[in-house]
Amino acid sequence: MGLFDLFRKSSDPAASGGSEDALPEDADARSAAQPSAADEEAPAEAEAASGAAAPDDEWAPDPKEGPRDRAENGPFDAAEAVPERNRLDLGAVAVPVIDGMQIRLETEGKTDRILAVTLVNGKAAMQLQVFAAPRGEGLWRSVRTELAESIRKRGGKADELYTELGHELVSQVPVRTKDGRTGVRITRFAGVDGPRWFLRAVFSGTAVTEASERAALVDLFRGAVVRRGDAAMPPRELIALTAPAAQSGGAAEEARAASDAGEEKSGGPDDDDLNPFERGPEIAEVR
């Protein structure tokens, strides 16, 4: 496993220009928003499973969404049969690790609460966050809708795909590149509704444009194990992660110092309008 860092989060860097995954406007942004050969159109039975529209005077909860084989192939709940694999235990979620991969923890500036973990493999990145959810209702459908509306209000594009992970949202947001040109930042959001939890992934960099590099991170996503706990929590509440015991002491302090040194460089306008949750960052890129 490669570097392990703690990043102190002061504001959401997703809105700032000059990101390394920002593509020039004339790049193949359109192709990145199209289904790959592995992607599928949503099957008719998947639509039927959501049920017919309820009458105006009758409320129906959103169904839980995610891969059809989630229980067998992940992401897993800790109470399920989980295959053996080398994982890093972060408390609320344990994530598989591979050689050469960087693991970056993103913390809340004032409290050092760990809000997210980002797995970086080469130029491909995937951020993971865990949220509390109702037992009998899915969150991903409503979150996806709110995200798309927020992205479009900012002048971006938001399109849905149906992939091996279920429904995904492709975001294309205008940015200013380092050389002053207008570009577009492309990210893909995936969500899985589990038993009383919601796990969200944000793919960026070459995980959006290169099928093989996306597949490597999708494999890690499917291998994740969520440990929600039994405590009562309101739906959509962010479940904070915990740093591994091996990172306590000097290594963690050095990582925090590096995070503090880079904090001013990673600042940018707030993206609270992109956040369908009441707590936690919506888009967080690691530079």
From TrEMBL:
It comes from the Bacteria. Residues 1-11, 61-72, 253-268 have a biased composition (Basic and acidic residues). Residues 1-83, 243-287 are annotated as: Disordered. It holds the Pfam family DUF3710. Residues 45-54, 243-252 have a biased composition (Low complexity). This is DUF3710 domain-containing protein. It comes from Brevibacterium salitolerans.
